[in-house]
Amino acid sequence: MTGVGIDAIEIWTGKLKLDLPGTFAPEKGDDPAKYTKGLGLHASSFPDTYEDIVTMGANAAKRLMERKGLTPEDIGRIDVATESAFDNSKPVSTYIAGCLEQVFEGDFRHANKGERKFACVAGTQSIDDAYNWIRAGRNRGRAALVIATDTALYERGDPGEATQGAGAVAMLIDEDPSLVELSPEQGYGSMDETDFLKPNQQFPSVDGKRSVQVYLARMREALTDYESVAGKTHPEEYVFAPFHTPFPGMVRKAALLGYRHMIRDTEIEEALADEIGMQPREEECETEEEYLDAVREYTDALKGTEQYRAWYARTIDPTLDISREVGNWYTGSVHIARAAALKRALEDDMDIEGAKLLVGSYGSGAQAEIHHETVQEGWQEEIAALNIDEQNERRYDLSFAEYEKVHQVHNHDEDVEVEEFTVPEDEFAFDGWGRMGERKYRYVE
Ligand code: CAA
After folding, report:
1. Of the residues 200, 262, 376, 399, which has the maximum number of CB atoms within 10 A of its CB?
2. Is the dihedral of CA 100, 103, 105, 106 positive or negative?
3. pLDDT digits (tens, 9 = 90+) for 71-122
4. Is the CB of 365 under 6 A from ligand 1?
5. What is the pLDDT, as a whole number, of residue 7?
6. In 3D, which of 271, 274, 270, 243 has the Cα closest to residue 258?
7. Cβ–Cβ < 8 Å for 319, 240
């Protein structure tokens, strides 16, 4: 059987922008460097008044279907991953299919539709479902449409407010893919955690500091689990390592721990020994505390080495190019990290066909998943078709007072009327409520 993976990808950002160091930080009385240097964020995307998870997802999917010349009959499955759903029964995929049927000939009557929930890891899980469906031979030659769409909003005043974002990523999963082939090997780190949750509420309850620790712990478990099936990892094995990016500073922490793990017992650890010593071994320490202190000291020293900095600049930094400008997109975040890295490779004219990516997804609650992907022959054409830079450039730059209104408009408990900031054109837009309490959408020419 031929490989299965991501054949095409399209990204749709919310059409509004909040400048974090320029607009948000001064109102909060924060040093702008907390955002640009600490969290690693410059701006967040927000949905305009007529945008939501359905419009963003449908707009990304429409671009993808048009570019690939697809009709609804070519799609056997539509899975939407989101943690911003507004209906506990009717899945977002049915709304998105309804939108697409307004503009494409035919319908998705015989496509299996669903909605996946496990915080931010659900986008990757939906890709898994599609992969398994194709591998099982149940797809009848059809491809799967996976859409990760979220409005990542936090309660006003919550520390998470600095890491908001909104956007959608549509991906076509198919045999003989043009972009990346997925590895059958996967690793998981999964535990019952209460780091971030939304118990029947729109805005999350977050234990921010703990969520960072849980992310690191589950990623580490996923990496060792992955190694148990795929063999030991080595930092030079992967051209890029896209990770779930709630904010780039989180990935900076994860990357350092990942690198330390990967260089253990390698020629890189040996080569660094003169400068920073060898990594501490647990069996050589008398107590666990002594071991943990020694590990912390080694990790701090590793961060400053030329080898680590060069690896980070090559393998991790390119994955953050889009996140820095749009914030957290929850289920879509790891997928914009992959796209950002491949985009940088295209801009730098890199020859990466056949190269491997190490992909780390994470969802609070909590589960991390790690697998690898192999870059395919058609990657340049696929990535060249993205227009995320233009979309980001076109966003309406909100003042703080306007941001406050936008937050209110998207708060399900508030009923406020706010004029739209941008004019919808060639896209789906929210069109009010139906008699059953359903949301309605129309395509605006
Ligand atoms: N110059 C440079 N750096 C600065 C600075 C300055 N002037 N001021 C602060 N910083 C640095 C801090 O040192 C810190 O970096 P380190 O962690 O490396 O020390 C960073 O900027 C952030 O500062 P704080 O820790 O003081 O920020 P905070 O307490 O206000 O909030 C947060 C940080 C807890 C992550 C918060 O944004 C939050 O709760 N976010 C939502 C939860 C989240 O994203 N968690 C991530 C893991 S969970 C996940 O991944 C799932 C998901 O998508 C939500």
Report:
1. 262
2. positive
3. 999 999 999 999 999 999 999 999 999 999 999 999 999 999 999 999 999 9
4. no
5. 98
6. 243
7. yes
441 in ligand 1 pocket by Cβ < 6 Å? no
Kindly tell me if the per-residue pLDDT of 137 is higher than 80: yes
SS (H, E, C) 346-412: HHCCCCCCCCEEEEEEEECCCEEEEEEEEECCCHHHHHHCCCHHHHHHHCEECCHHHHHHHHHHCCC
| Residues with catalytic function | 83, 120, 244
Q: What is the pLDDT of residue 319?
A: 99
Q: What's the mean pLDDT in 262-279?
A: 97
Residue 1 scores a pLDDT above 90: no
pLDDT of residue 370: 98
Residue range 4-444, CATH number: 3.40.47.10
Among the atoms of ligand 1, which is closest to the Cα of residue 363?
Answer: 51
Residue 39 has pLDDT above 80, yes or no: yes
Three-state secondary structure string covering 132-186 = HHHHCCCCCCCEEEEEEEEEECCCCCCHHHHHCEEEEEEEEEEECCCCEEEEEEE
Burial zone of 285 (CB within 10 Å; 0-12 exposed, 13-18 middle, 19+ buried): middle
d(CA 86, CA 50): 15
CA 33–ligand 1 middle distance (angstroms): 12
The whole-number average pLDDT for the span 355-381 is 98
CA–CA gap between residue 21 and residue 402 (Å, rounded): 16
- Full DSSP string of 36-71: IIII--SEEEE--TT--HHHHHHHHHHHHHHHHT--
Kindly give the distance from the C-alpha atom of residue 159 to the centroid of ligand 1, in angstroms, as a whole number. Answer: 8
Does the C-beta of 120 come closer than 6 Å to ligand 1?
yes
Q: How does residue 2 score in pLDDT terms, banded at 50, 70 and 90?
A: confident
